[in-house]
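User:
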Amino acid sequence: MKKVFFFTLIFLISAILIVSYFYFSERVYPGTYLGKKNISFFKKTDISAYLEKSFEYSFNIQVRNKAYPMRYRQMGIALDKGASERLIYENNRLSFPKNIIAFFRSINGQKLVLPGFIFSESYSDFIDRTRFDFTQNPDKISVDNGSKTLALQDNEVVYKIDEEHLKSLILFHFGEKDVTIEPRLVQLIKTDKQEKIIAENKKLSDIFSRPIEITVDVDGKTFKAVITTEELKTLFDIAYNNGEVTFSPRDERLSYLIEAKVDPHLNRNTRIDMKALKGDVLSAFLSRAKGLIGDSLLAKTTTVPLTETDTTTTHGEIADRYIEVSIVKQKMYVFDKGIMLKSYPISTGLYYPTPVGHFHIMNKALEGYSDIYNVYMPYWMAFYYGWAGGQDAYFGIHELPYWYAGGERKQRPREFIGSPHTGGCISLDIGAAKEVYDFSFVGMDVVVYE
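Assistant: Predicted structure:
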């Protein structure tokens, strides 16, 4: 009796196991999840239908406060049903009795299965093409005219989606209709803009790191005047406009520096076209921006025979910068650093003599007024105060005076220039007075000879 019971029990257990084997070999083991979906005991046909249906669902990609509706195919994602089913039925395919053991273990456990997706190159291209620009302020490029350098303030804020993080979210949320997922964003750092600024700074460094050498030929002898690198930085301002560096010369500084470099080497009767030389220096410098050398140039001089009227009493020894007046020649000469720069015809005292001696400019005004003669005197430069026509008065250098009569402006005739016609002052022609006014300064030496 016991033997019959034993064999009957063995038979029943074997039958249960065999039936269970064939039943569950076609169904998903318990505790199995496809994403968030519990697919326990799903048949293969159910799984196939579920995969196809879920693959057609749309989902939303949330980027900050905006959601973008998407579909799998739109993003270059394909469903591999075979791979998905192999993962789902992985334990079912184990050999006997391992599959039975796996079944009973799955009753109290959980297994997460992700769908078999193929992320094609189109998916990667989609991620690479998709940019999210949160820039609020444009980039700013500042210019340091002291060091002659550019600096970039990169205000661009552009992000792309973290490709791998988005993959994991898409896989995990498979089967959820219209689900919203929010992938991580990765900020894009563009190095090309910074590299361009670095290249521009290297170019600027090269432009300002080499001096300009001016070779001047004077009576068969040459000398070299060098504009140093530090001086170059004071002669040109840089700006950055529309992606290009531009240069602006400081004209007055450039003119003064060139004259200071060249004039001391010129003879009294040697002249140089400063305007042309200035243009040559500009061309030499700007040629560097085009990749040319631009390190040296030749300045041409001309010899001007000295006439009797050009012969001065002094020869540049009075001061660095001063004015000489010859009453007998009715000429004025301006000197700078030992060189007589220019001479002007003048008109000196007729009604009262022009003072003779060594004076200094006492004051300057764009326009003076004489209470004695009731005339206006443009570009006034006083050089003496003393007795004149019964009273103390200032004597000065000025432009031909003018006055008003009957509401009309009257001008002292320009023909008076070149002969004595004043009340003791020194009159210059229209235009010439402004040049001398700009040349002079309060305290400048003025020497007047008969």
